[in-house]
Design brief:
With 102 residues, the chain is an alpha+beta fold. It is 26% helix and 25% strand. It contains three helices and four strands, in the order αβββαβα. A four-stranded antiparallel beta sheet has the order 1-3-2-4, covered by helices on one side. The longest helix is centred in the middle third of the chain and has 12 residues. The N and C termini lie far apart (44 Å). The mean pLDDT is 86.
Length: 102
């Protein structure tokens, strides 16, 4: 297992992404019930190829999270899934920035 529970929570807070499926089959990305802002991330880690489905508002957030966790040349590809569900209806809550007090 490449993600543990603390990594999932930290990733959500720091990068604003949600890990929907970890180490899954790439055919799971064809599921229409996924949110429209989900991505299939393919990574090469310790000589093995893994596929994760993440939810975020842009692919650069997913790239930053995976690059920081797994290092250089680990991200093979990031592609959109076939999800058609509105993210607001899927239940994703984006990371809220702290409000400044004057």
């Amino acid at each position: 297992m490449i993600w543990d529970d603390t990594d999932k929570k930290q990733t959500l807070k720091q990068y604003g992404i949600a890990l929907l499926k970890s180490e899954c089959d790439p055919d799971n990305a064809r599921d229409g019930t996924l949110p429209s802002n989900s991505f299939l991330v393919t990574i090469n880690y310790d000589g093995s190829v893994f596929h994760d489905i993440v939810q975020c508002y842009n692919a650069s957030a997913a790239f930053d999270a995976y690059y920081d966790k797994f290092g250089k040349q680990s991200v093979v590809s990031i592609v959109n899934t076939s999800g058609r569900v509105n993210p607001k209806l899927y239940g994703f809550k984006p990371y809220e920035k702290k409000k400044r007090t004057s």
